[in-house]
Amino acid sequence: MRLSRYFLPILKENPKEAEIVSHRLMLRAGMIRQQSAGIYSWLPLGLKVLSKIGNIVREEQNRAGALELLMPTIQSADLWRESGRYDDYGKEMLRIEDRHEREMLYGPTNEEMVTEIFRSYVRSYRDLPLNLYHIQWKFRDEVRPRFGVMRGREFLMKDAYSFDVDQEAARAAYNRMFVAYLRTYARMGLKAIPMKADSGPIGGDMSHEFIILASTGESQVFCHRDLLEMPIPPEDTDFQSDLSGTVKAWTSFYAATEEKHDEAAFAAIPEDKRVAARGIEVGHIFYFGTKYSEPMGAKVAGPDGVEKPVHMGSYGVGVSRLVAGIIEASHDEAGIVWPDQVAPFNVGIINMKVGDAAVDGACNELYQRLTKSGLDVLLDDVDGRAGGKFATMDLIGLPWQIIVGPKGLAEGKVEVKRRATGERELMTPDAAVAKLIGA
Amino acid sequence: MRLSRYFLPILKENPKEAEIVSHRLMLRAGMIRQQSAGIYSWLPLGLKVLSKIGNIVREEQNRAGALELLMPTIQSADLWRESGRYDDYGKEMLRIEDRHEREMLYGPTNEEMVTEIFRSYVRSYRDLPLNLYHIQWKFRDEVRPRFGVMRGREFLMKDAYSFDVDQEAARAAYNRMFVAYLRTYARMGLKAIPMKADSGPIGGDMSHEFIILASTGESQVFCHRDLLEMPIPPEDTDFQSDLSGTVKAWTSFYAATEEKHDEAAFAAIPEDKRVAARGIEVGHIFYFGTKYSEPMGAKVAGPDGVEKPVHMGSYGVGVSRLVAGIIEASHDEAGIVWPDQVAPFNVGIINMKVGDAAVDGACNELYQRLTKSGLDVLLDDVDGRAGGKFATMDLIGLPWQIIVGPKGLAEGKVEVKRRATGERELMTPDAAVAKLIGA
């Protein structure tokens, strides 16, 4: 993409309404625009990151055997009356009346609807296990939306729902999602720690929040340091196999959010292994048994012909929230530092003298070659001051920069800068191409 | 994908509520499920088609220089008051009150919001031309939603908005979308004819509906037969160049919907060149000048420093409607006949004797080899009657079928069937793989 043809409205001033760094940087980098309280447009740069994150989530859900569908945003109130939640949900639910005065709502979550889909079609244990997920916009009418897309009202979530014949099978489904989540966040360049979470009235050990550590995090978390270095299950993990060993390894170390924190258990950890830090919740997996299948009549016949309510779990990833979460975890004074895997562009080329035939030519050639090799490249071909160009490129945080100026070119060289480290290296354009394609 | 692990709830009976063939086939093939009047879940098979169509639209918008962003579904009523449309829109607009009693609405379209984004950031003619689009769910509270996703209430639309300094530049923007639309529909295996459409109070010639011909179409249309054979602009079309020649070639032939039909002009066409047919609208492009920029104050300074309202156009593609439209245009007695480019899977393999080691082995090997070569393959590995298996595979309309049974295999052969023609051919598994990879 050539910057001259792109829509990248950079803000020079720090927006006053932004209280946290990710909100400030997303506004300044032209990633989002607020349309109403807690409701945002995703401008081109922001949408690219959102899509890349969504695709990683999708690939890992698919790998784990979950099936993607897409439920609508608008739901009927009657469906929520079946589970009893229509009256319970309170003011966070955006309630709507249509032209025929039917009560509708903007879905804040989809347990009821997916249970309705399940019960309409599935009758036998032979059709299980089943895990259905979607990546769809949700609405929660927060009383005081804040922190940008970190706590918006309209937000993008991946929510998966598993259906199993009994609790043992539901645990296997839970373990598949547990492992899929470990892989999902790692692929985004994040360290996400599964932490024991509230399991509600059902009790049991099948409820984990996935928390990324960031000094600006919303809540206090505690864990064993070894969790930070645990190996991530590999790409060729067999999701048909027994994954309880992996889950056991991860859950054998202490890890808890403030709500579930056990001071005594934490004190029992050797002092140099204790991590007390700030964290951001970016996912939650949760077994809830027959909470919805029972009142809604979602049953399957077992091998003995007897019908029983299915055992369900739900598995959420905050896709739009992750964009902010990654920035909280990865930024510096100059702006965002995107992990390679979710960066909106892999490389930014800075043309230091627009209109100079040699510089223009070298920039164009680099742009063509890198683009052809499959990299996503942003070419700053706009006439402007060097300082402003550097500041913009640092602000938007592309992993690599190639700076092309007349002086360097006269010696056959361009400068390659790694955003994360600030490391700079002079090299020939050929060497730059080779380096970035191999990176 | 193995059918044993997929969610494909086929209906054996024709659903009574479905009045048109696409609605009937989408329900029967397990592509959609109605959740409320005019509101559908997209089940896995349906979502795959929806995504493929969306991606073709996206690629062609990007090729034409339009930039993707994503505006939210929920908008503020105040924004619509600025253009005067809040009161005008009537009951098709789903009006919502949030917990703070602010008036909101579920966007039926986005002229106001995109104009607000534009005016917030763009000040100079130097930042033009600009074309911003998104692919987002819309809601129109139809009084009597019907025909499945053809006329749903919650529907997926691509809407693009162009911003230009004057009418001449706006015409160039219009022409780029005109050409992009020709390519978009052709890539889906459709013949879509641009037809003169109502241009509203502005008048002029810059308003076209894109209509696909289908005997079950919703409206009567008329055109010159030569339009059916017009060449489609190639992939390497230079969208920076003057495209008026292409647009002129397409618009020089008679083509009109019933509303704009001119009996005398139609009669002047040689009789064998007259086409009177049924059609389905799948897109609309439209220049509306300063209709929104004027009241909303979206202005740019020209080279002379004088500020003027920008000239705008809008360009819609009914993405979810297209899924039904393609089925209306391409089906037979046995079910859907997907064009290759939008088929949910490229190939279906039918295992005729599940549990037979040779047949299972041959199916698995075909599945692996075709999948590795990049094809999307559905393997029917479920034990069942031959008749039911054939019927399901024909119903869901995958372009190619490979039928693997013990008799054929004993002679080293499988059967390859082309869904569209019914043509069948016996060949070795190697030959089948070669044929489908090359197809």
UniProtKB/TrEMBL annotation, chains A, B:
<keyword id="KW-0547">Nucleotide-binding</keyword>
<dbReference type="InterPro" id="IPR036621">
    <property type="entry name" value="Anticodon-bd_dom_sf"/>
</dbReference>
<dbReference type="GO" id="GO:0005524">
    <property type="term" value="F:ATP binding"/>
</dbReference>
<keyword id="KW-0963">Cytoplasm</keyword>
<dbReference type="InterPro" id="IPR002316">
    <property type="entry name" value="Pro-tRNA-ligase_IIa"/>
</dbReference>
<keyword id="KW-0067">ATP-binding</keyword>
<dbReference type="GO" id="GO:0005829">
    <property type="term" value="C:cytosol"/>
</dbReference>
<protein>
    <recommendedName>
        <fullName>Proline--tRNA ligase</fullName>
        <ecNumber>6.1.1.15</ecNumber>
    </recommendedName>
</protein>
<dbReference type="InterPro" id="IPR033730">
    <property type="entry name" value="ProRS_core_prok"/>
</dbReference>
<dbReference type="InterPro" id="IPR044140">
    <property type="entry name" value="ProRS_anticodon_short"/>
</dbReference>
<comment type="subunit">
    <text>Homodimer.</text>
</comment>
<keyword id="KW-0436">Ligase</keyword>
<dbReference type="InterPro" id="IPR002314">
    <property type="entry name" value="aa-tRNA-synt_IIb"/>
</dbReference>
<dbReference type="Pfam" id="PF00587">
    <property type="entry name" value="tRNA-synt_2b"/>
</dbReference>
<dbReference type="InterPro" id="IPR004154">
    <property type="entry name" value="Anticodon-bd"/>
</dbReference>
<dbReference type="InterPro" id="IPR023716">
    <property type="entry name" value="Prolyl-tRNA_ligase_IIa_type2"/>
</dbReference>
<feature type="domain" description="Aminoacyl-transfer RNA synthetases class-II family profile">
    <location>
        <begin position="38"/>
        <end position="339"/>
    </location>
</feature>
<dbReference type="InterPro" id="IPR045864">
    <property type="entry name" value="aa-tRNA-synth_II/BPL/LPL"/>
</dbReference>
<dbReference type="InterPro" id="IPR006195">
    <property type="entry name" value="aa-tRNA-synth_II"/>
</dbReference>
<comment type="function">
    <text>Catalyzes the attachment of proline to tRNA(Pro) in a two-step reaction: proline is first activated by ATP to form Pro-AMP and then transferred to the acceptor end of tRNA(Pro).</text>
</comment>
<dbReference type="GO" id="GO:0006433">
    <property type="term" value="P:prolyl-tRNA aminoacylation"/>
</dbReference>
<dbReference type="GO" id="GO:0004827">
    <property type="term" value="F:proline-tRNA ligase activity"/>
</dbReference>
<comment type="similarity">
    <text>Belongs to the class-II aminoacyl-tRNA synthetase family. ProS type 2 subfamily.</text>
</comment>
<dbReference type="InterPro" id="IPR004500">
    <property type="entry name" value="Pro-tRNA-synth_IIa_bac-type"/>
</dbReference>
<dbReference type="Pfam" id="PF03129">
    <property type="entry name" value="HGTP_anticodon"/>
</dbReference>
<dbReference type="InterPro" id="IPR050062">
    <property type="entry name" value="Pro-tRNA_synthetase"/>
</dbReference>
<keyword id="KW-0648">Protein biosynthesis</keyword>
<keyword id="KW-0030">Aminoacyl-tRNA synthetase</keyword>
